[in-house]
Design a protein that fits this description.
The protein is α+β, with helices and mostly antiparallel strands. The protein contains 5 helices and 4 strands. Strands 1-2 form a two-stranded antiparallel ribbon.
């Protein structure tokens, strides 16, 4: 959508493939991208900076590494988390739920 001063795109549903494309546009075209992502791990994977809101107020705006701290996740979302490095980068895992999120090919196809 063109507004004269800015060119922007509105995308309602974000998939990894769309985020890959947006990241490529950001890098190749020097295009600034603003998006709303409620999955903190997806945000950490694709965003250079993350804004964290609590009750409509900005409580942090920084790099994923500085935002996804256990202290900030507890303040913003009232959950206990820890950071882990994965092949796709930094991720935040909720204590007590990590086992539920592990799905292997064997467990998926066993049902």
């Amino acid at each position: 959508v063109g507004s004269g001063l800015f060119e922007f795109i509105v995308i309602e549903t974000l998939s990894a493939s769309i985020l890959d494309l947006l990241k490529e546009l950001n890098k190749d075209q020097k295009l600034g991208i603003i998006t709303v992502i409620h999955d903190v791990n997806l945000a950490a994977r694709y965003c250079d900076r993350i804004a964290v809101l609590k009750d409509g107020s900005l409580i942090s705006l920084d790099s994923p590494r500085k935002v996804l701290t256990p202290e900030l996740m507890k303040e913003a979302f009232q959950v206990e988390t820890y950071q882990i490095e994965t092949p796709i980068g930094l991720q935040s895992a909720q204590l007590g739920l990590a086992r539920l999120n592990v799905v292997t090919k064997e467990t998926y196809f066993s049902h």
